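User: For documentation purposes, I need each entry recorded in a consistent format: the amino acid sequence on its own, followed directly by the corresponding structure tokens. There are two entries in this batch. Please keep commentary to a minimum and don't merge the entries.

Assistant: Recorded as requested. Entry 1:
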Amino acid sequence: MDIGEIISDSVKYPISDWKKLLTLGVLLLLSFLLIPVFLAIGYAFRTLKTTIAGFDELPEFDEWGEMFIDGVKVFVVTIAYMIIPLIIIFASIFFTGSYGLTLTNVLLPLQAGGSIMIVGFILAIIFGLLLTIAIAHMAFNDSQLGAAFRISEILEVIADIGWANYIIWYIAIIIVGGIIGFIASLVIGLISGLMGLIAPLVGSAVSYILSALLVQPYLNLFYYRALGLRYAYQ
């Protein structure tokens, strides 16, 4: 399956069942309660598992305990992979801001902090590429947490896909997701702006609700479907 086919399938996948899309949206809408966040992550991960297994339908919302645990696992794996780049990036910000900056001493800390931040961003890209396949590999191995850290197997999967194909797919998904998100934000902005003419708070509330209920779940399902197809068709 080529990148065009993956994107075409993934764009249609979230709206193949509006009820399930909106159910995921409700979980994201209630994300301030924390537990729904892990349920939402767990459901998105379940779509990854079913996609890799060859299913084209959105999975059911059941076995909530398992779904919650899967969400926690994805969160743990994400933190484990990204903690080093994040520490370096925040350290660069702290390093730059810790100086009493004047005209005489502003250059050195900015240069050093900028260099450290660049290193952090480069590592974030590298670890992000590994993290993406690590999560898919965990899904393929029936949610085994350890599978996400089998680096040699993960590198083998990427090699089977082809590093060039994988990076092109990665960039394409980011671009398509960004375009969808941009268009959605324009539409929501227009709707919330019109509602804001009635009452500013109403406009803000409408913007938040529509984003959480429709845009965020759509983009999550789009991404995990695309990842599942990329992993399944190495």
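Entry 2:
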Amino acid sequence: MSRIEIDTLGKSFDGKRVLHDISLTLAPGRSLALIGPTAAGKTVLLKCLVGLYAPDRGSIKIDGADAGSADMRAETLNDRIGMLFQQNALFDSLSVWENIGFRLMARGETRVGARARAEELLPQVGLPVETADLFPADLSGGMQKRVGFARAIATAPDILLLDNPTAGLDPILAARVDAMISSLARKNGATVISATGNMVGLTDAYDDIAVLHDGALRWHGPADAAQKADNPWLRQLLSGSRTGPIQTMSPIETMSIEA
């Protein structure tokens, strides 16, 4: 289990600030749901955490060590962090078990051992063992998401970063996936940050919630306090209301404006 400390983190692209002085701490073994509207900065924050983006300012510490150092970046990417990418990022030419065991084999595990680990994980993510010999093209989007999650936890990482793990799933399956994430994370003792758009069962599946809007942290606290919190951003997201500080337009409204 690892402690994550983010201090006044900022990131810009082409002069546009995407993250504005983000500061939060996640205790070892805790799970955090990172919520917010589209383009709030959730994915960028995850990519800063995993080392794919270098912050412009601020710092990220893992167990007190600077995650920005070259040695720490190599260690976290190879050993300490498991990540589920938004588009799953499965290798089309590899079978399901080879995808799940890819990082294990990169670290020296035999093909026999990697396959055994994949077959152990498949039932845990709700897929039959027979799925092992299929290829990503043979799977539905929801099945691919589960394979991606199995790959993320295959090395038993200290930290799990999940980018929209329920995207494209119906509400019932999305709630099941969130519950599965919470259960498996606790079983593996991982510290979890999940950028999610699923509000169903959110306060039951995660220990903490953080709200991002326009790249700024608007609320952060324990999930069991979320329903009673007097915060307009959090309240709007949990209720799904169109009234509040988050301004959204439906596809129909967007089409009308463009017309």
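Summary note for entry 2:
Confidence is low (pLDDT under 50) at residues 250-259.
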